[in-house]
Amino acid sequence: MAKRKILTFDYGATSGRAILGEYENGKLTCTEIHRFDNSPVEITGHLYWDILRLFHELKQGLIKAAIAGHKDLDAIGIDTWGVDFALLDENGMLLANPFSYRDVITDGELERIDKIVPLKEIYRRTGIQLIKFNSLFQLTAIKDKYPDLMARTKKVVFIPDLLNYFLTGVLSSEFSIVSTSSIYNLEKKDWDTELLKKLGLDPSILPPITPPGKMLGRMLPNLVEETGIDAAVCSICGHDTGSAYLAVPMEKGEECACLSCGTWSLFGTELLHPVVSEEGFRFNYSNEGGYDFTTRYLKNIMGLWIYTEVKREYERREGKLEFDALDKEIQAAKPLQSFIDPDADDFMQPGRMVEKIREFCVRTGQKAPETRGEVLRCALESLALKYRFAMEGLEAILGKKLDTLRVVGGGIMNKTLMRYTANAMDRKVVAGPVEATAIGNMTAQLLTLGEFKDRWEARKVIGEAFEQTVYLPEDRAAWDEAYARFTKILK
Fold first, then answer.
1. CA 73 to chain centre
2. Contact 308/296 with Cβ under 8 angstroms?
């Protein structure tokens, strides 16, 4: 069997990387080629993604791959965070930098739209968790606040599809990223044009939906000349969680909960069909699309964003802080004292995170954490308890117990969080692989190239190739008591 070489670009909401995948004789290996920061830029009161810089970093990854002797790529695949998009004019030119989902433009948008089309109806049609930054609400907010900008818009293109467009000149809307938008109609299996018209949006601004696992075309000639690489571009699961779930090394028929853990935590399970129910609406669960048109039935939870922001805040005052040193401070702090709701609006925007945590605790009648270790412990314990809350909701909706939680993504490197999660949930936690999103991206490319017969064969290879760590629960009584207190501070 000839060696396959594929290049994966994985854009997270805080960083990005280019990773080379090599597959030969049933073995998959990963090598990092390029890594870069990704942070929204604040200008005149709005947060934007620096999309041209992000494309520049993509080109740097290609150039580094060529220099390292990997010009013979079989394919390239790009995944990014969800919901955000760019606006193009009639000539296919960018009208503005894309808004970040953390921008204030959607503040109050759920309440405003609920008066036009009830949110419950939107959930029934789209099956997507109702969060103010969903693509639909970003579009209605732009139309309401910047009508001239929307009037000039001829196409709305999601971030991974935009980067594919920059590479190939081909416009598309890949299924997994589309499914995050609150615009995809589950029954029609297409854009919800009726919903768009009710909200005064023109359906023609949305390109046709394409499935994951499709070759879009080859790189444009000018990019071939600039980078030294001439490769096909594969439309994989463009939503990073779709790629991450494809890399969960579960066995066929296994019933488990899945968690993609990073800046965001995507907690749920993989189903063959969507579930839209009263319980799903109450617990705010999403039906997002995956490879083979599977359903990622999950809930978005504010992940390690809060922890990272706290660390960044202390570093601005005191200089660089090592994770191991912080972990010692966390372990020295008294356990299970005060909690926050990680998904409270307080914590959506960057800045003042330590103060926000303390204010939340005081407002909810708890003792405010004082030391650095106490603040960080509060953040991690609260996140673990929120996972338990999400698990209870998931089991109530599905009507069955899930005994194992499989966790993938960079968050598994925080072993303290993994231990807290096993304790809080009183379940076995199996953590790995770390680079799940990139591995899932590679997997979709290899499936497209015909290297695996199906996603289950691919997952078997992943399970054999990458390390997994098992965490077992401890201190059940203490965590049960803490959970009873935690649920009282939730909305």
1. 26
2. no
Q: pLDDT tens, 49-63?
A: 999 999 999 999 999
- The model's pTM: 0.92
User: CA-to-CA distance for 443 and 452, rounded, in angstroms?
Assistant: 8
Are 20 and 70 in contact by the 8 Å Cβ rule? The answer is yes
Average pLDDT over residues 436-452: 97
Instruction: Using alpha carbons, list the distances in angstroms from residue 203 to 133, 155, 192.
Output: 19, 10, 8
Residue range 26-37, pLDDT digits in tens? 999 999 999 999
Q: Which of 10, 161, 192, 240 is catalytic?
A: 240
Is residue 74 within 8 A of residue 449, CB to CB? The reply is: yes
d(CA 102, CA 96): 17
Find the length of the chain. 491
Cβ atoms within 10 A of the Cβ of 362, count?
12
Catalytic-residue membership of 240:
yes
Tokens of 382: 């609260």
In the block, residue with structure tokens 């899932």: 440
Name the average pLDDT for the chain: 96
Token pair of 329, please? 């401070």
* pLDDT at residue 428, as a whole number: 97
Rounded Cα gap, residues 261 and 176, in angstroms = 18
A 10 A CB-CB count for 259 gives 29
Burial class (CB in 10 A: 0-12, 13-18, 19+), 365: exposed
Helices 305-318 and 353-363: crossing angle, nearest 10°? 120
Q: Are 433 and 245 in contact (CB under 8 A)?
A: no
- 98 alpha carbon, distance to own chain's centre: 17
198 SS3 class: helix
